[in-house]
Specification:
4-stranded antiparallel sheet; 11 helices; 448 residues; 10% strand; alpha+beta; elongated
């Protein structure tokens, strides 16, 4: 064996290794390069948060039309008109003139006035209403109108609360169907890319079957989401036909409409207590009970009846003209009626205090929920961004041959589920904010 003519230097060895690596890449690097070329970009691997549907409020014109057509509000308005007429009756009073006519025949057998005589008598009288009773009836008339107005406001607010709940439920179901469609489109692109790689011998049948199973799962999710969206939309349009005339669930293009109110908790609480439909009705019931107590107190003084009459006796030989006065003698029943009315007014007062505490508790719960859900939106968005980044890194690892397809699909499902949570949290926050504004009279100018 011949010795080397020249010693083999370290620099020559490095150059040879560099030339070898440049000219002949390893099988793993070649495979990674092929995957990177045929796999969609990282940005298209998951639906973007910025492209998710956003909740909106119904159009004001549609809401006004619904309020004008709903039977419950028509009934409340009819009862309000009835209360106005009953109030007019109370103000005018039910004391009316009463006319009486009496005809008789007198027969006298003894002389010298023997004979038959035709006699008649006409009487007109009226029960007088005392000023205190008229004033009490006027208070009752106002209480009836206030109660009818309170019932109308309560019906309208409860109706709108149900409308908003159904509206956001239908919008959320439609948004979830949109998200499922976006996910399926991206999975379809991944399947096509993997099919190309598998036809070139760069992907196994197992990888293709895993991706096709993920495609079937996304297809099933889409079908379920579309079914839920269709049923929610059909129920919404059947209950509120005016919303269906637009053909879609597109509402107001005003993101600030669903933002939390800028007022502080104390101001919002005062508005909620003032606009609460339960409290509005209970205040009207208290006013009505107090008016009944005033009527019972005024009724302790009986109403007199006065009248006048004329008559003819003995065939006209005698003429009669007279006045009539009648006065009931009040008994213990009138006193008991007043005491019962006062007790009912006292009960209404205590009931009002209890409902005030309940309304305050309901507001605090709704206010805390709205704030927590608004914060949850930000938290879930941050979590979705982290999960998306993790999924993108796992996809990159799969492209480089450092992770399997199942690892990336698992990470992708976690990121997709977090994206779905973002969508749900946005609609939950929108629903709470809308209900909070509704209860505080800051939505659609509900309170009179």
């Amino acid at each position: 064996m011949k010795p080397l003519s020249k010693p083999f230097s370290l620099s020559a060895l490095s150059a040879a290794l560099a030339l070898t690596l440049t000219a002949a890449p390893t099988w793993g690097a070649e495979k990674a390069w092929a995957k990177s070329a045929d796999t969609p970009s990282l940005q298209a691997a998951l639906p973007a948060l910025s492209e998710l549907p956003s909740p909106t409020l119904p159009q004001v014109a549609a809401v006004d039309q619904i309020l004008a057509e709903t039977p419950a509000l028509q009934e409340a308005q009819a009862l309000q008109q009835a209360a106005a007429q009953n109030g007019a009756v109370l103000r005018a009073g039910t004391n009316e003139f009463t006319g009486q006519a009496q005809v008789q025949q007198r027969r006298i057998e003894s002389l010298p006035d023997s004979g038959r005589y035709n006699e008649w008598q006409l009487l007109i009288n009226r029960q007088l209403r005392l000023p205190s009773q008229a004033q009490a009836d006027g208070r009752m008339a106002e209480a009836l109108q206030t109660s009818a107005q309170a019932a109308l406001v309560a019906t309208r607010q409860q109706f709108l609360g149900a409308l908003l709940t159904a509206w956001f439920a239908a919008q959320r179901a439609q948004a979830e169907a949109v998200l499922a469609q976006q996910d399926l489109d991206l999975i379809n692109a991944q399947v096509k890319a993997l099919q190309r790689r598998q036809s070139l011998g760069d992907a196994s049948v197992l990888e293709l079957e895993q991706m096709q199973a993920e495609q079937a799962r996304a297809q099933s999710t889409l079908l379920l989401a579309q079914g839920m969206a269709a049923s929610s939309r059909a129920a919404l349009f059947a209950r509120y036909p005016a919303l269906s005339r637009g053909g879609s669930l597109q509402g107001q293009n005003d993101p600030s409409a669903l933002a939390l109110p800028t007022l502080d908790a104390e101001q919002l609480s005062a508005r909620a207590v003032q606009a609460s439909p339960l409290l509005v009705q209970q205040r009207a019931m208290l006013q009505k009970a107090q008016a009944m107590a005033a009527q019972a107190h005024a009724a302790r003084t009986p109403q007199p009846t006065v009248g006048a009459y004329i008559g003819s006796d003995r065939g006209g030989s005698e003429r009669i003209v007279g006045l009539q006065f009648a006065m009931p003698l009040g008994g213990s029943a009138r006193v008991s009626q007043e005491r019962a009315a006062l007790a009912e007014a006292d009960a209404a007062q205590w009931r009002l205090r209890d409902l005030q505490a309940q309304a305050e508790a309901d507001f605090q719960r709704l206010y805390a929920d709205a704030q927590a859900q608004a914060a949850a939106v930000k938290a879930t968005e941050q979590a979705a961004q982290v999960q998306t980044q993790a999924s993108n890194r796992m996809l990159r690892a799969y492209q480089l041959g450092e992770a399997g397809l199942s690892d990336w699909l698992l990470a992708r499902r976690s990121a997709l589920e977090t994206t779905r949570l973002v969508l749900q949290s946005r609609f939950d926050a929108a629903t709470s904010s809308a209900q909070l504004k509704l209860q505080t009279g800051l939505l659609y100018e509900l309170t009179p």
